[in-house]
Amino acid sequence: MTNQAKIAATRVYGPKYFVNILISIILILFGYLMLYPFLWMIFTSFKPLNQVYNTGLLHHKWNFNNYANVFSKVNILSGLKASVVFSVGLTISQMITSSMAGYAFAKIKFPLKNICFAIILTSMAIPYVTIMIPQFMMLEHFGLVTNGPWGYIIPRLAGGAATIFFVRQYCYSIPDALIESAKIDGAGQVKIFFRIIFPLIVPVVVVQGLFIFIYIWNDYLGPSIFLIDKNWWTIQLFVARFSSGQIGSVGAANIPMQMTVAGIISLPLLILFLYTQKHIVNSLMSSGVKE
Which of 91, 41, 77 is nearest to 215 (CA)? Predict the structure, then answer.
């Protein structure tokens, strides 16, 4: 081996090379530890009841009846319908209101703007359980709790402080000259927002919309308090009652069927994450840019 070949081999297989291998192995192990509960859920949903704990992930007899039985023992279609209606509708509402608020705090001058924004950020430090009872009493006083799902919908129509913050930070990257030129052409704030600003902030809106959808889809506390009518129960309420044995005669003891239900309700979130993952990093990086 020539000296040049030895030098090249040293560069390739130097200390940095082995450090990268070690880091890769550690990341793979941590990735497996994080994915194992999800994999266990998926594979357990195809197991017979007597093979839940005494076999590994793959060494068992495949049972596809769990997915057929879960639709007959749990009113999962009704829960999925309600969850889709609430999640999609409230996500769209919060995305629009948060986008408008974030744009206003970033690009529109009005009195006490910074104070109002500080108050909104302060609301993030208030736990929901501290306002849960007063909110319920107020909505019940207006008859919104017992008359359908409005007691759950109305407090969640507007966007949260975190979404407003990220949209505001993202709007700082938009040049003011673009807005001024639109004003010269006679465009109002509403037209500027929907025709110019909103198409530019779609990446951050999509990512924040994903977070909103996940939160609403997985929400159990809110629906359990405000959704008294069984016709409006979300999938999380059905899963909780099925797992505790309140729905279905074997719900509390049938682990494979519980994992089947959990897999079904996790599928929409997995699809959404795979569809929007390319926007997440770029959105979070751009939200920190301020001119």
Answer: 91
The domains of the chain, with CATH numbers, are 3-64 (no CATH), 67-286 (1.10.3720.10)
pTM to 2 decimals? 0.80
- CA dist 152 and 223 (Å) reads 7
Name the pLDDT band for 59 (thresholds 50, 70, 90).
low
The model's pLDDT over 120-156, given as tens digits with 9 standing for 90+, comes to 888 888 888 888 888 888 888 888 887 778 889 988 8
Q: How do residues 147-179 score in pLDDT, each as one tens digit?
A: 778 889 988 888 888 889 989 988 888 888 888
